[in-house]
Amino acid sequence: MKIKKKILILGSTGSIGKSTLNVIKRHQSKFKILCLSSNKNYKKLYKQSQLFNVKNLIINDYATFLKAKNFFKNKKIRIFKNLSDYLKKNRKKLDLVIIGISGLDGLKPTLNIIPYTKTLASANKESIICGWKFIKKNLKKYNTNFIPIDSEHFSIWSLINNNKKLISEIYLTASGGPFLNITPNRLKKIDVKKVINHPNWSMGKKISTDSATMMNKVFEVIEASKIFNLPTNIIKIIIHPRSIVHALVIFNNGIIKVLMHDTSMEIPLFNIIFNKSNISFYKKTNIKFKNLNGINFIKPDKKKFPYINILKMLNFKDSYFEVILVTINDELVKLFLNKKISFIMMQKTLLKLIINKDLKKYFNKEPKNISDIYLMVNKVKNYLKKNEKIFN
Predict the structure, then answer these.
(1) Which residue, of 1, 250, 286, 303, is most buried by count of CB atoms within 10 Å of its CB?
(2) CB count in 10 Å sphere of residue 358
(3) Three-state SS for 324?
(4) pTM
């Protein structure tokens, strides 16, 4: 009997988790999902457990966990209030862990699961941006492979093929979001509904907002720099409205490599899940040559996308800069989505705050452990609360 690949999915009810399960569903006989997790959506989690015969579930929100206890009573499923509790009872080595959690809440579980898996695949931007040095240390210590899930970073990972020393430049592609073809003046009247209406990708409100401001690309430059241990000044952003090309790598031997695929996260996830295995194909891809003819690349307009200017501030060294940037952006996006500040004010405020002397003084310091990261997050949040006049 063929041994099934043992998988754990953290954040299974989110976009990445659901895409992962869609891939596994088509080849279910090859896999054994040992555990799924969600923050609050325990009813969706239960449906997933039934479909994939999963006996262990994690519900991270404690109030929801207590509420779900009655729901799961007599259902022959073990529920845990966090990953640490699950690992106390389940210490067998996994083949693959998928991290689909969003936000800095994903850092601690990422570090905790590394000793128990052969391969870690993560889409958790914030953890990589703010805590990569701790993730990298654990990966090395426990001999765990790492594969990035984001389409751009998966593309770079696929293209460089251990030729890192030959890399001259890397271009991460951006669609330009919903406002590519409007003038900067018209952005003053943009509302939440228009911001979250992404033309190519189906994403949540937060990441759709980050796409509209192009903050997600600033984050991806930082991610790429850390994951591949490359200076930030060779990683650049180029707008490609069709979102067919996900990354370009220019080598100093004259070769340019480009990776293309449809706008579906299932494609990188399929290739991660079936990495180096003899699977026939994802599904038949009918090439639409009309979409490939005249592929457009456009230099980003810094007036329309002022966050691009943050790239000049990036430092190859680890510091609190990334933690402060991520926290300010998270808080301002929440205010925007709750209609407390305008789209333009959100951007102006962030650019003002990121050079504020009270916060800038931490840019030459670095966190010594993950507790330092969470302390800085709280420090920035408290600073923003005390200085609400900045948003007016």
Answers:
(1) 250
(2) 11
(3) helix
(4) 0.91
